[in-house]
Amino acid sequence: MSELLAQTARQIRSAGSRRIALQAMAATEVNRLPAHWTDALIAALDSRDSEDVSLAVAAGTTAEKIDGDAEGLRLALARVAGVTTHVDSTRLRALRAVSENRPLPPDLFEFLLAHLAPETPVADRLFAVDVASVAALTNEQFRRLAGLAADLGPMELDRLLPVFAKSSDAETGQRLARSLLDSDAVDGLVPEKLRLAFSKFDAAVAEAARPLLERPQADAEERAAKLEQLLDAVGTGDARRGQTVFQSSKAVCSSCHAIGYLGGTVGPDLTRIGQIRNERDLLEAILYPSASFVRSYEPVVVLTKAGQVHSGVPRDEDGDTLTLATAADKTVVIPREDVEEMRPGTISIMPAGLDKQLTPQELADLVAFLKNAK
């Protein structure tokens, strides 16, 4: 069956059969890409058909190991990343697959930066962050990224922050400290990740970052006052508009939460949330996701012997490994023998700071939509 799919995927005359074969290959989870698949995907990646290329990228970027012409596949994916007429999400996915420990050409770095903008679809933003996280960046590229940190949403910032632990460039550290001090999303960051991000910079950078690392958290009275202020507007919310907010790339709620049959599974299912939560509860959960945790969704912080910090929700634990959901689209598998310490987390993987990302009316609409979910 595997060889038949590869043969069909290489058919030139039957576009329909070729597309079906590529769809099947993209939907099949394999740890090792067979050699005959590798050859077929290289051919598809050089196709002029954008849908064929997108499917071939999806099929060629999931396996951990590649049999056959692995370098040929890497070069074909690199060509896709550089073709400006391809769909942006396809280019980003291809770029992520070929960037690990490799320099990013200036044009592709600019392409990456353009897709960190808040109006970009969330999947593209996260792919762009992933590229930055694995590539061998220059000091100038680190500095550009650090300067953009203030404008990143909480989800992207949390995911990008560990990349700065690879830099010791003082100018990068100073820019990062200034950016984070201006960031609306910084309150939702895991403290250990903040410390790790500044771990390789000099004493002057450490001093500049001290207000970040020692910043006080909002106390209960401040949170209550803010809730009361925003609750006044909740009555003006519109559930239909709230559904648009829920599904938007701005709030990205549906990336982690399902309502009905649509949405993610990293966070609790919200299909009937309106039956068990009032408007105040819902608003508090949106504004302060770390104030309390739903049972079975409590975060943990894992410190590895190599000095890495992982924060997420346990998804699978067997005798040898621990799997954490660290974001809507990302899991980390950690060998038990690599764990130095594991403790309950205090920061939800749901990003805080949505009140800074959404207008008061959008917040009111979102609460109305959730209250209507019964």
Notable characteristics:
374 residues, two-stranded parallel ribbon, Cytochrome Bc1 Complex, Chain D, domain 2, globular
Textual characterization of the structure:
With 374 residues, the protein is of the alpha+beta class. Helix content is 51%, strand content 11%. The protein folds into 4 domains: 98 residues; 115 residues; 91 residues, Cytochrome Bc1 Complex, Chain D, domain 2 (Orthogonal Bundle), CATH 1.10.760.10; 45 residues, Roll (SH3 type barrels). The strands form 3 sheets. A 5-stranded antiparallel β-sheet has the order 8-7-6-5-9. It has a two-stranded parallel ribbon with strand order 1-2. The protein has a two-stranded antiparallel sheet with strand order 3-4. Helix 11 runs parallel beside helix 13. 40% of the residues are buried.
Describe the sheet with the most strands.
Answer: 5 strands, antiparallel
Strand order in space, largest sheet? 8-7-6-5-9
The percentage of residues in β strands lies in: 5-15%
Going by helix content, strand content and strand pairing, the class is: alpha+beta
